[in-house]
Design a protein that fits this description.
CATH superfamily of the largest domain: Pseudouridine synthase I, catalytic domain, C-terminal subdomain
Distance between the termini: 15 Å
Enzyme class: isomerase
Organism: Paenibacillus agricola
CATH topology of the largest domain: Alpha-Beta Plaits
Function: Formation of pseudouridine at positions 38, 39 and 40 in the anticodon stem and loop of transfer RNAs.
Strand content: 25-35%
Radius of gyration: 19 Å
EC number: 5.4.99.12
Keywords: Isomerase, tRNA processing
Helix content: 10-25%
Structural class: alpha+beta
Shape: globular
Number of domains: 2
Order of helices and strands: EHEEHEEEHEEEHHE
Number of strands: 10
Length: 258
């Protein structure tokens, strides 16, 4: 048996998240059906993270065990002919038999994009949350810095989470703005957060809170108080899913054998 690892990019708009569900309309379901069509094998895919319905991935990482003799260089070409246009696999490589794409991930980066200004961008509407009124991005930047380090993120976690511990470490958190689009009179705000792991809806709740800070509904100093409270009701709403993208997942390269 070989343990094959790949990158997966997808537009999550049409899917009920990554993890398999009875609806059979998830990224995992589609990928597993494609592998079965290609090899005749029924395999189970492991992913680096379970993105929610409507959330996208620039670089989701998966792995699965297979006895197929298909050469590594042909896996992605073959699978992409069987996948819909909104899912693409790339970078197939063989990894150690014990490699697990979620457990062995060292850090993950999520990016959330807000379109702020007079008009939305028609061509990026599936990857941006549109906010027509101004946001105080300097206050939002200041608030983000409070998240860096090891904290209990209970306040930024869905009540539906089943994790034993809500302690996570955030390595970097940043906000950057694109130039104003002269036609749309709006611009994109990119919020990037890198950590050793994330709780259910954690990034979207952080963003929902940041938007309230940007609107002036909360002071920029409130982020620390929310963290200390360890109570979901103290944070802002869960931001809409379409603005969120799993951007990057990093590993120890010694785990990759080919």
């Amino acid at each position: 048996m070989r343990n094959i690892c790949m990158n997966v990019s997808y537009d999550g708009t049409a899917y009920h998240g990554f993890q398999t569900q009875p609806s059979n309309n998830t990224i995992q379901d589609i990928l597993e059906r494609a592998v079965r069509s290609l090899t005749g094998e029924t395999i189970k895919i492991t992913s680096s993270g379970r993105t929610d319905a409507g959330v996208h991935a620039r670089c989701q990482v998966i792995n699965f065990l297979t006895s197929s003799p298909i050469p590594l260089v042909r896996w992605c070409l073959a699978l992409n002919t069987l996948l819909p246009a909104d899912i693409v696999v790339s970078g197939a490589r063989q990894v150690d038999e014990g490699f697990h794409s979620r457990r062995h991930a060292l850090r993950k980066t999520y990016r959330y994009t807000i379109r702020c200004g007079k008009h939305p961008d028609l061509f990026r509407r599936r990857q941006e949350f549109y906010h027509p009124t101004p946001l105080d991005t300097e206050a939002m930047k200041s608030s983000l810095l409070c998240l860096i380090g090891e904290h209990d993120f209970t306040s930024f976690c869905s009540l539906r989470s089943t994790k034993i511990s809500n302690v996570r470490t955030i390595y970097t958190a940043s906000l950057a703005c694109e130039p104003m689009d002269p036609v749309l009179h709006s611009y994109a705000i990119h919020i990037c957060v890198t950590g050793n792991g994330f709780l259910y809806n954690m990034v979207r709740i952080i963003v929902g809170t940041l938007i309230q800070i940007g609107e002036g509904k909360r002071p920029s100093t409130s982020m620390l108080d929310i963290l200390d409270a360890r109570e979901r009701a103290k944070a802002g709403p869960t931001a809409m899913p379409q603005g969120l993208t799993l951007w990057e997942v990093l590993y120890n390269n010694d785990q990759f054998t080919s």
